[in-house]
Specification:
328 residues, alpha/beta, Quinone Oxidoreductase, Chain A, domain 1, 2 domains, seven-stranded mixed sheet, six-stranded parallel sheet
Length: 328
């Protein structure tokens, strides 16, 4: 009678020990975490790559002040390996996805992660691990900005900047699924795709100034910042809402916003199981799909960052985490 295979005590992870370019990302061998009370241990199949990742890598510090050495990554899709005391939502073998611990380090660029069970939701039916790993942070950002923060209603006019990006292409679909008239900014080469995702009106930011073209908008979702803030204010009707997913700085035209009678807010995405379930419903109903632009193995995280920093991707970049054969 064969003995059960012992769980590995170590794992591979991508770590950095200093701030810098993509070359600071290295694969290391480190201790496998164990779930605490209320937590689950997830064997990672895929990890999404987000702008927050390469910005944190370059600065060498997380938003909560954590400094190197650390492991990047927030988007996780995988299988529950074990559950800590008190967890009743999931059992070993359950397939899950989530954005654990944000904005604190989650360590998703690794073979295993631990996090509170309620930072995850069941993987949507019909979605594979690759797509699920691309989804959480970008989809939750779009959902929380439009639904929870702007309180978008059917029939409203919604402007989505950078609409072909990770957050943008999901925001277009969420707004459309909830009955909005959607105006999207993107390069002309991406307009056909955005029409298939539900955009009603397209603006080529290279040849058109949105502030001269668009009027009477109820909600603007901005992921660009800088001069785009002022242009966005000019598109909004009085009483409209600008939601920025970039923190306001001294370049934000606060006085113009006040004079225009518009609400302008910075929103930071949060772990949100209910939001993940709402997003899953849209996916399972065929009203939301995630576009994966490029896929890299865990060992090529640096290449994934190089691509992401070009700003030319459509949709998301994903890392695949292939288990080490020596451990399986």
């Amino acid at each position: 009678m064969s003995k059960p295979i012992a769980a590995p005590s170590t794992m591979r992870a991508v770590s950095q020990d200093r701030a810098g370019g993509p070359d600071v990302l290295k694969v290391i061998e480190t201790k496998r975490p164990e779930p605490g009370r209320g937590e689950i241990l997830v064997r990672v199949h895929t990890a999404g790559v987000n702008p927050a990742d390469w910005k944190t890598r370059e600065r060498g510090v997380f938003a909560d002040g954590a400094t190197p050495p650390f492991t990047l990554g927030f988007d996780v899709a995988g299988v529950v390996e074990s559950a800590g005391a008190g967890v009743t939502l999931f059992r070993p073998g359950d397939e899950v996805f989530g954005m654990p611990r944000f904005p604190h380090p989650a360590g998703a660029y690794a073979e295993y992660v631990t996090a509170p069970a309620r930072h995850f939701a069941p993987r949507p039916r019909g979605l594979d691990h690759l797509q699920a790993g691309a989804l959480p942070l970008a989809a939750l950002t779009a959902w929380q900005a439009l639904v929870d923060t702007a309180h978008m209603r059917p029939g409203q006019r919604v402007l989505v900047h950078a609409a072909a990006g990770g957050v943008g292409h999901l925001a277009v679909q969420i707004a459309k699924a909830r009955g909005a008239y959607v105006i999207a900014t993107a390069g002309a080469a991406k307009h056909d795709l955005l029409r298939t995702l539900g955009a009603d009106e397209l603006i080529d930011y290279r040849t058109q100034d949105v502030a001269d073209t668009v009027r009477d908008v109820d909600v603007v979702l901005d992921s660009i910042g800088g001069p785009t803030w002022a242009r966005s204010l000019r598109t909004l009707r009085r009483g409209g809402t600008l939601v920025s997913i970039l923190p306001f700085d001294d370049t934000f035209p606060a006085r113009q916003a006040e004079e225009a009678g518009v609400r302008a807010v910075f929103m930071l995405v949060e772990p949100d199981q209910q939001g993940l379930r709402e997003i899953s419903d849209l996916i399972e109903d065929g009203r939301l799909r995630v576009i994966v632009d490029a896929v890299f193995p865990l060992e090529q995280a640096a290449r994934a960052h190089e691509l992401g920093e070009t700003g030319r991707t459509t949709g998301k970049i994903v890392l695949t985490v292939t288990p080490d054969p020596a451990r399986t």
